[in-house]
Design goal:
By secondary structure, the chain is mainly β. It is built from three helices and 16 strands. 9% of the residues lie in helices and 47% in strands. The strands form three sheets. Strands 1, 2, 3, 5, 8 and 9 form a six-stranded antiparallel sheet that branches. It has a five-stranded mixed sheet with strand order 4-11-10-6-7, with no helix packed on it. The longest helix is centred in the last third of the chain and has 10 residues.
């Protein structure tokens, strides 16, 4: 078991507060708003959203962009020995007499059997001035977990209780992170629930111009396998919005570029 509480400085948090508007909202793989999501909680103006990523640096890089909105790539699956980090975004915290917000979080992780796996108390998300009104802030503390050899695979539940100590309000959120066996180098491994994997959908969309059709649009990733090489190979079966099905092999290189080496329509 490896558990890490990672904290960035308050100055960095202030610089990274991005204008996302007044709403905390989750979307599904098709970009539609989720009807109900336990990872989001609201009471009055105060709201929090819990999410996880295997690439926290990419998350912070996206958050640092001075744009009217931020698209953050989230993950709910990772492999054994690969860390995954849980973050809390927030809005509407109450300020004290000095104009400062104080949010603290309790992170608890439960293993697939329901047994408590790790607990972190009193993680400071913000102790200072909040983002400007109408903006969403990112808590400066995140919890990273890594499931090691001999520990169970499967769904790990992460429950976060976020307390606004000025307002006296605690909001509870939760999410399920699935840990799978690490793929062997050179071997093909199935990708669980590939259509819900936003990073994989983006790779498939980047490969669509290789299809000699007018404006091909992705409808669904039906099946996917991955292979660890110098980067990652993916074999996909995709369905387009015109009803055709295609098999493609995409090499996602370490520098972020892609190469499509196989492409054929399925009859």
């Amino acid at each position: 078991m490896a558990v890490r509480l990672v904290t960035i400085g308050a100055f960095a948090l202030a610089m990274l507060a991005a204008p996302l508007g007044a709403q905390l909202q989750a979307t599904d793989a098709a970009g539609k708003a989720a009807v109900h999501d336990d990872s989001i909680a609201n009471q009055g103006e105060f709201g929090v959203m819990q999410f996880a990523t295997t690439d926290p640096q990419a998350m912070w890089d996206a958050w640092a962009q001075a744009t009217a909105g931020v698209e953050i790539q989230t993950h709910r699956t990772t492999a054994r020995n690969q860390p995954i980090f849980t973050f809390i975004a927030f809005r509407g915290c109450k300020v004290d007499a000095k104009g400062a917000c104080h949010l603290a979080a309790r992170f608890e992780v439960f293993d697939p059997s329901g047994k408590s796996y790790a607990v972190t108390e009193g993680a400071a998300l913000i102790d200072g001035r909040p983002p400007p009104p109408g903006n969403i802030g990112m808590g400066r503390a995140s919890l990273g977990i890594r499931v090691e050899a001999g520990e169970p695979l499967g769904p790990y539940k992460v429950i976060v209780r976020t307390t606004d100590t000025v307002a006296g309000i605690t909001l509870t959120t939760q999410s399920i992170l699935t840990i799978v066996e690490a793929p062997s180098v050179g071997g093909w491994q199935p990708v669980p629930n590939p259509n819900a994997d936003q990073a994989l959908r983006k790779l498939a969309i980047r490969a669509l111009p290789k299809i000699s059709r007018k404006k091909p649009r992705l409808a669904k990733i039906e099946r996917a396998e991955s292979q660890v090489v110098a980067g990652t190979n993916y074999r996909l079966v995709v369905r387009l919005r015109d009803g055709t099905r295609w098999i493609m092999k995409i090499w996602h290189k370490l520098d972020g570029t892609i190469e499509v080496s196989e492409l054929a329509q399925l009859i």
